[in-house]
Amino acid sequence: MKGLAGKTALITGASSGIGQAIAIRLAEEGCNVVINYYSDSDGAKDTHRQAMEKACADVENCGVKALLLKGDVSKETDAIALVQQSIDYFGQLDILINNAGVQTDSPSEALEADSFDWVLGVNLRGPYLCARETIKHLLSSDRPGSVINISSVHEIIPRPQYLSYSISKGGMGNMTRTLALEYAAKGIRVNAIGPGATITPINDEWTDDPAKKAEVESHIPMGRAGTSEEMAAAVAFLASDEATYITGQTLYIDGGLTLYADFREAWSA
Ligand code: NAI
User: Fold this and answer.
1) Which residues line ligand 1 (CB under 6 A)?
2) Cα(13)–Cα(101) distance, rounded to whole angstroms?
């Protein structure tokens, strides 16, 4: 895609799932990638290996580089260090992908405050901190840039028993639009994708059980869950120069999940 080669992208939570697929896809498009991970260093190394394989498949002297950085996005010192070390290593940072995310389930009347704080910390405080540091760098170096938040269909669909997750993704939607408006005139675009049910480790509970998977997929108009690669393709598009006039949007990639599947057949006169 246009305009990605030679850029530098920081992807948070890139040791598995959607973040791993994004890092690999952006490297394939010629971006230098910073692979942030929290604890799974083997997963991060696997992302690094696959990213370099894709990036350098047809190129003799491949210029693409990847850097592994450990860090907890919810901690201010870690978020500052992630962005600074990316800039120190590559000399610039052009693209931030706020992907790291966690979830817990509990009836809302029993939701522990610590659990609430943890989900909001990773899913909302982390993206705010990483965006703040990236935007600061873009403004001070007078560079255009792109921030892409990995939100969810639960940015707009309420999810009972996942109160903290629903709040975090709803907040992420407003963060996307607020930052987009604030920095549009500076050439900094801020967008999001809203994945539907996607086959990744966060969904182990149903992806590994054929009956539960069929039950989940029965609610999806296209009849199947999505893949991390399908999410990564949309992220590459939004980060590229094919999307230079798009800002403040959440693009739902969900097989039709946000189309009110219950209306597939008429249930009222
Ligand atoms: P995943 O569990 O494979 O990825 C989440 C990543 O975040 C992991 O690599 C994990 O190590 C990392 N992480 C957790 N806490 C962290 C922290 N404090 N600092 C840095 N990294 C941390 O799951 P998946 O599905 O790839 O999730 C990626 C994003 O996609 C999340 O934001 C999730 O909410 C979102 N999403 C996923 C959907 C799905 O069906 N898989 C649907 C909608 C949104």
Assistant:
1) 12-13, 15-19, 36, 38, 40, 72-74, 99-102, 122, 150, 152, 195, 197-198, 200-203
2) 7
